Amino acid sequence: MNSVIFLGTPQFGATVLEGLVKAGYDVKAVVTQPDKKVGRKQKIVYSPVKDLALKHGLPLYQPPRLSRSEELDEVLMNICPDFIVTAAFGQFLPSRFLKTAKIAAVNVHGSLLPKYRGGAPIQYALRNGDKETGVTIMEMVKEMDAGDMYAQATLPISEEDTAGTVFEKLAPLGSQLLLETLPKIADGSCQKQPQDPDQVVFSPTISKAEERILTSMTAEEAKNLVRALNPDPGAYLLVKGQRLKVWRAEVASDNSSLPAGCLLTNSGRFAISFADNTVLNLLEVQPTGKKAMKIKDFLNGQGKKFVPGERIVDEDKD
After folding, report:
1. Which helix (H) or strand (E) holds 116?
2. Does the pLDDT value for residue 34 go beyond 70?
3. Beta strands in 177-254 (DSSP E)
4. Sign of CA dihedral 170, 155, 190, 118
5. Phi and psi for 288 in degrees, rounded to 5?
6. Is 27 in contact with 84 (CB distance < 8 Å)?
7. The predicted structure's pLDDT at residue 44
8. Annotated binding-site positions for (6S)-5,6,7,8-tetrahydrofolate
9. Is residue 42 scored above 90 in pLDDT?
10. 163 near 88, Cβ under 8 Å?
């Protein structure tokens, strides 16, 4: 079976790596991001890819910056595997390293390229209200996500999907497509297709400022932002100077003549007016310093302190 160097970090990457291991590929090395410290106690957390590599006893490397690491020059450059495979790694790979692959260096990318090149393709698909997404197996080149495409598979997006659920669905789809495609690349039967430069759409990492739900959005746009940023990092409203994270929301069937940012009702539902007379029902929220809660629990506590008809969403400060 062909040899592989694998690079990835989150669960999406772990699922792809698991597929390679189970299929019998000779994984010579696994590269993932360094461990993170999370929470007030700064607990060290391994990436899902690291957990899987340790489970299978695979050689593991965690350079903070691959392009300037001793591991690259002293180990990885000398392996010369048949394939270099990446799946949500999170770092640029030096061209000199990519060229050490005897057959090909390929990436499992979570979009239907050339749409959504970059680090947040799933989030952009949800934020933009797309009805489908997919996976592309592509050749890795120096320019981000610009290589020729070997294969694609599509996935419908439901109204209930979040970034988390789409990731969960795309991971096995990407693993399966990769395992179907690698043998065809190896035997020369897989024809590469160049990306149409006129169809390129970029999806850079979501900025902190973009996490905020603005009342200049329609209710549909606000709901899609909530879906795109669930489960991480979460979208939020600024309500009377306090951040209120919104984990689930729905577009209400009724409209409102109130200015955007006003509370319609806090009786049975928590409904806020948005642009174009649209209304958003908040379904699950998280006040600052508290755990996420269903809206009925929020209404039993803080929700009643707001008066229907008043503007509760701040626009000009954070």
Report:
1. strand 115-117
2. yes
3. 201-202, 235-239, 242-251
4. negative
5. -55, 130
6. no
7. 86
8. 111-114
9. no
10. no
In a domain, residue 82? The reply is: yes
User: Are residues 177 and 81 part of one domain?
Assistant: yes
pLDDT in tens, 184-226: 999 999 999 999 999 999 999 999 999 999 999 999 999 999 9
Answer whether residue 313 is part of any domain: no
Residues 6+ apart with CB under 8 A from 161: 126, 169, 227
Q: At what angle do helices 163-187 and 11-22 cross, to 10 degrees?
A: 40
167 and 277 housed in the same domain: no
* Burial class of 191 by CB neighbour count within 10 A (0 to 12, 13 to 18, 19+): exposed
Residue 170 domain boundaries: 3-202
How many Å apart are CA 205 and CA 147, to the nearest integer? Answer: 20
Distance CA 211, CA 235 (A): 5
pLDDT reported for residue 317: 55
Does the residue 314 lie in any domain?
no
115-137 in b/e form (b: 16+ CB < 10 A) is bbbbbbbbbbbbbeebeebbbbb
Q: Say how far apart CA 288 and CA 274 lie, in whole Å.
A: 22
Q: What is the mean pLDDT of residues 20-49?
A: 91
Residue numbers belonging to the annotated binding site: 111-114
Crossing angle (nearest 10°) for helices 11-22 and 48-56 = 20
Q: How confident is the model at residue 301 (pLDDT cuts 50, 70, 90)?
A: confident
Please count the CA atoms within 13 angstroms of the CA of 128 that sit on its side-chain side. Answer: 15
pLDDT tens per residue across span 131-154:
999 999 999 999 999 999 999 999
Count of CB atoms situated within 10 Å of the CB of 60: 17
